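Section 5: illustrative case.
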C-alpha cells in the first residue's frame, strides 16, 4: 500500500478536493504507474456537471502519462521504469468487438467503466483506513500514482516529454483517429471541423497530414480560430458572427459543402449543423460527446436523397497500442504538433482552476503536473 495525493470528486457539481488516499499494490494483471502529467478533458467536466453518470466518489482523469513503478503477477507488457501512456479503453481481447478488430467498443471495458472498478471488481483506492473510492474509466490519473489494467498502459519511447505524451491518451488519438480511421480522409478532399478545442485541433492537423484542402475550422472564440490556423486550417468561420454556419461553409466550397464534416463539440444543434455542412454523398463524423439524454433531429427525406454517411467516432476507432506510438513518432519527426496544444500547466492543487479555464474556453488543453 502507498499513500498518494489525489483530486477527489465527492459528488456531482462539487469542486475537487485534494486529499491523501491509500493506493493498493497492483494485483494480478495490474500495473502501478507514477503519474507525471494528466490532461484536463471535457469528458471529466461532463462527470462534474452530471452529464456523464459514473459512480462517485471517484478520482477522475483519463488522459495521462507516467512511469511504471510496479507490476502484478503475470504482467509482461511493461516493467518498472518504462514510460507509458494510459489508455482509457483497455480492450479485453476476448469480447465480440475486440475479436472483430474494434477494441474501442470493448464490452468488458464499457462494463467496468460504468461500474467504476478495475477488472474483477477491484477497487485499489480508499480513504486512509476507511471507505473505498471508485476508479474513472480504469485510469484515475488525477493522482500522484494509479493502478490500472495491464491492457491500459501503452509503452512509449523514453525521449518524449511526458506532459506532451499525456495528451495522446485521449485528445490527440481521438482527433487523429477520427480522420485516419473513421473517415479515412483522402488527399485533396475538403474538410469542415466544427469545434477547435483540444480534440478539434487534432482533427484539423490530422486532416492536413492526410492532404485535405480546404480545411475549414468553425468556432465562436477568436483565439481558438487563431490556433486552428496555426494547426493548419486554411479557412475559419467565426460562429459568433453568423447564424448560418452551413451557408458560410457552402460559400467556401462552391455551394456544395465539404466532403467531410467533423462535429467535435457534442451538442444536438452543432451535430445538425455538421450534417448540413457536408455535401451530397459526403461523410459526417460525430466526435463530440453529448449528454446521454439528448436527441438529434435530421430531415428524414435528406437521408436517402442526399446519401450522406452519418457516423460516430469513439476514441477515433483507434488501436491504442499501435496508434499512440505512431502518433508520438510523428510528433518527434515534426509532423504533428503537441507542444502547442498545452495552453497552461497546473500543479495538482490547481485542479479546480484548470477546470475553470476549461469551462471558459480559454485553453486548448490544460495539463496537471503531478510531480512536486
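Designed sequence:
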Amino acid at each position: 500500500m502507498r499513500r498518494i495525493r489525489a483530486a477527489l470528486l465527492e459528488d456531482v457539481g462539487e469542486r475537487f478536493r485534494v486529499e491523501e488516499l491509500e493506493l493498493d499494490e497492483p494485483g494480478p494483471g495490474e500495473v502501478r504507474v507514477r503519474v507525471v502529467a494528466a490532461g484536463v478533458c471535457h469528458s471529466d467536466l461532463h462527470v462534474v456537471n452530471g452529464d456523464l453518470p459514473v459512480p462517485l466518489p471517484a478520482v477522475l482523469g483519463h488522459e495521462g502519462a507516467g512511469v511504471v513503478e510496479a507490476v502484478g503477477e503475470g504482467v509482461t507488457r511493461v516493467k518498472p521504469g518504462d514510460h507509458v501512456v494510459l489508455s482509457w479503453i483497455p480492450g479485453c481481447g476476448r469480447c465480440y468487438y475486440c475479436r472483430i478488430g474494434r477494441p474501442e467498443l470493448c464490452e468488458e471495458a464499457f462494463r467496468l467503466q460504468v461500474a467504476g472498478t478495475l477488472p474483477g471488481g477491484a477497487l485499489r483506492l480508499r480513504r486512509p483506513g476507511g471507505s473505498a473510492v471508485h476508479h474513472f474509466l480504469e485510469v484515475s490519473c488525477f493522482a500522484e500514482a494509479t493502478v490500472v489494467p495491464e491492457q491500459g498502459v501503452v509503452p512509449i519511447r523514453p525521449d518524449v516529454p511526458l506532459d506532451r505524451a499525456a495528451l495522446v491518451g485521449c485528445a490527440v488519438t481521438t482527433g487523429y483517429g477520427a480522420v485516419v480511421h473513421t473517415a479515412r480522409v483522402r488527399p485533396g478532399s475538403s474538410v469542415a471541423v466544427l469545434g477547435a478545442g483540444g480534440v478539434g485541433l487534432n482533427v484539423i492537423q490530422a486532416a492536413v497530414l492526410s492532404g485535405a484542402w480546404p480545411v475549414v475550422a468553425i468556432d465562436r472564440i477568436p483565439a481558438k480560430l487563431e490556433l486552428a490556423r496555426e494547426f493548419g486550417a486554411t479557412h475559419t468561420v467565426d460562429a459568433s458572427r453568423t447564424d448560418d454556419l452551413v451557408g458560410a461553409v457552402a460559400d467556401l466550397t462552391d455551394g456544395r459543402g465539404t466532403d467531410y464534416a467533423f462535429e467535435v463539440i457534442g451538442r444536438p444543434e452543432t451535430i445538425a449543423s455538421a450534417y448540413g455542412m457536408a455535401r451530397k454523398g459526403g461523410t459526417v463524423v460525430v466526435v463530440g460527446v453529448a449528454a446521454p439524454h439528448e436527441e438529434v433531429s435530421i430531415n428524414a427525406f435528406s437521408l436517402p436523397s442526399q446519401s450522406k454517411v452519418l457516423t460516430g467516432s469513439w476514441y477515433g476507432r483507434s488501436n491504442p497500442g499501435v496508434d499512440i506510438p505512431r502518433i508520438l513518432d510523428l510528433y518527434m519527426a515534426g509532423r504533428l504538433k503537441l507542444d502547442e496544444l498545452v495552453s497552461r500547466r497546473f500543479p495538482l492543487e490547481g485542479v479546480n482552476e484548470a477546470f475553470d479555464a476549461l469551462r471558459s474556453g480559454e485553453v486548448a488543453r490544460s495539463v496537471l503536473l503531478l510531480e512536486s
